[in-house]
Amino acid sequence: MSLRARIRLLALCSLAASPVLAQSGNDWPVYNGGSDGDHYSTLSQINRSNVAQLQVAWTYDTGEKGNMETNPLIVGRTLYAYTTSQKVIALDAATGKLKWKFDTGISARQPVRGVTYWPDSEDAGKRPRIFAGIMNYLYCLDAETGKPVPTFGTAGRIDLRKNLRGDYKTQSTVLTTPGIIYKDLIIVGGRDPETHPAPPGDIRAYDVRTGALRWRFRTIPRPGEFGYKTWPPNAWKTAGAANNWAGMALDAKRGIVYVPTGSAVMDFYGGDRIGDNLFADTLLALDANTGKRLWYFQGVHHDIWDRDFPSPPALFTVERNGQRIDALAQTTKQGYLWVFDRVTGKSLFPIHERPFPPSDVPGEVTSPTQPVPDLPEPFARQRLTDDMLTTRTPEAHEWAEKTFREFRSNGQFVPLAVGRQTVVFPGFDGGAEWGGPAIDPTTNVLYVNATEMAWTGGLVPAVRTGSVGEQIYQSQCAACHGIDRTGAPPTFPSLVNIEKRLPESKIKAAIQHGSGRMPAYPNIDKDELASLLDYLRTGNAAGAGNAMASSQPQDKYTFTGYRKFLDPDGYPAITPPWGTLSAIDLKTGKYLWKVPLGEYPALAKQGMTNTGTENYGGPVVTAGGVLFIGATIYDRRIRAFDCTTGKLLWQAELPFAGVATPSTYMVDGRQYVVIAASGGRDPKGPAGGAYVAFALPR
Question: 230: which DSSP letter?
Fold first, then answer.
């Protein structure tokens, strides 16, 4: 049976499902607005003519400090969200008053981006449910009371570490982005470590009533499965990740779930995984009923640059040559925009496999080609050259010129080297990030925010002769905190003298359970932990356990750490824009406008405005012709732009940075725009966590 015939049969035979949740009325019932992921609202009470009148309608202070990336759900009069410590809350959507709070008692500081709502309308007398990822658990809560549903899993929860590989107690996986509902299934991915050991990134569907596992798709194929030969023999036994941490989109009518995946471990050296490594860095179209693969597209072959697909695709319908095509758009960290027929997987714009240089690292074999789209043109700059170095001050420019001469820089997909830093531009955080794009379905215009920061990375031979603590640090921790423990502040803090800033109990908790972007390391046993703590305290390679060999898997090379190319004053060492917002016509692939997004308050006071900044969280587009976005780290603002022109129409300062995607909804005839604000990305800014809702004056 042909692919088209199979998909038609799936649509015709699909059983009656729960109502398709989408932002087609007053609510915002699904992460990013609807299962199609288009970030679009049909509400228009707030529009171009009156958006400048917006004022704060209510604020809910969580009373906690940390990072919130949550896109709140609103159903009826209730808003569902998280606090910074992953307590689940329900607020009155018109007043911000707390209705209930669910606290697991688990110490949780991982990023979480939203919950999942299931109306349960097929069962008479049943109550709607909220599914919430808290660390490695998926909880099922009564939406009206916040209490766990005892018939789901074990006492209202399932452990996502189970049914992956080996002893589940040594696995590390957390649900960063909410699962997606199809019929009576909740389909989930997970966030895995980026170094060995890591579990495989299986995509799994669970029964929403019982928590029973209904199907799985293996992103690291086993013998006999399609894609197995793109890995070395038996690599599946130790290979990890290739996971969906970014979330999914759903074509509910056809029963197709679209699943973007990330890179395989270790992120920056693949000598143990020679080959293209399906299904890492792949956009998968799966039968949502069974998990069977319908089509796929691999965006990066044998990824050694951490070029994960960072967000769910957005679904839309476009007219081509007199025919309507159901399509999707997928953003990327490298600034490419892929546009596909979502039924067949055929690209709507030409894609060519282009040659790129080979690696000179012993044992590494990079792919000779990588796919590059002809259109749209990248929404972020692709190659850093010396004429793009900062001119903010003569001193900063001189420093940047001298430092840049030490780097390798030649555009995309230049392999990392041993002993020398290679420019990755856009950086490891994009380009586009987890906020994803917005699409206006009435115009087929896509809006995407991007960060334009240069980062560098390199490799050094792995440590094999130091203490167990040093070996574990170099294999597990150095990727973020650097081989010398100095980190890359503010994103990755220094661990030098960490014992003077944090008690040993908190350091242990962070290692064992994770914290913020840091995953948990339950595989490190008691003796290894003691040696690691000794190394963190002293930096002494001859510390406890010097004669022992670490039991943790080790690669031949260690990543030197994420390094932003910043000048001595902490500003990007390249010319602006450092963050942008773009509008792209999906019919033609052409840009309609591009504007800087964000600024540094200190530079703005000096007259250097509209530079753009790093930004996290996506846009929301409304039928009122207005685009809302927070995202910017340093100026802590939420903004409204004219969708047609890119003109700034309104902005308001938030108590903390709005590094999250807003939601918009209507209660009692009044439209609101709400955003999570927190202090987790800028250590020099105010710390806290709050939800702030805006509306027109009564």
Answer: G
Q: Do residues 428 and 455 touch, judged by C-beta distance below 8 A?
A: yes
Do 253 and 247 contact (CB within 8 A), yes or no? no
Q: Which CATH code fits 463-554? A: 1.10.760.10
Sequence letter at residue 477: C
Third-level CATH fold of 3-457+567-695: Methanol Dehydrogenase; Chain A (2.140.10)
**Digit-coded pLDDT (tens) for 476-512:** 787 778 778 877 776 677 888 888 788 877 777 777 7
Alpha-carbon distance values, 431 to 244, 311, 356, 437, 639 (Å): 18, 12, 20, 12, 20
Q: In the structure encoding, which two tokens stand for residue 191, read together? A: 């966030």
Expressed in angstroms, the distance from the first to the final Cα of the chain is: 59
Is residue 21 scored above 80 in pLDDT?
no
DSSP string, 76-132: TTEEEEE-TT--EEEEETTT--EEEEE-------S-----EEE--TTSTT---EEEE
- Each domain of the chain, given as residue ranges in start order, spans 3-457+567-695, 463-554
- CA torsion, points 37, 40, 43, 46, in degrees to nearest 10? 130
Closest CA to 261 of 306, 227, 319, 224: 306
What is the Cβ-side half-sphere exposure of residue 61, based on CA atoms within 13 angstroms? 7
CB atoms within 10 A of CB 369: 13
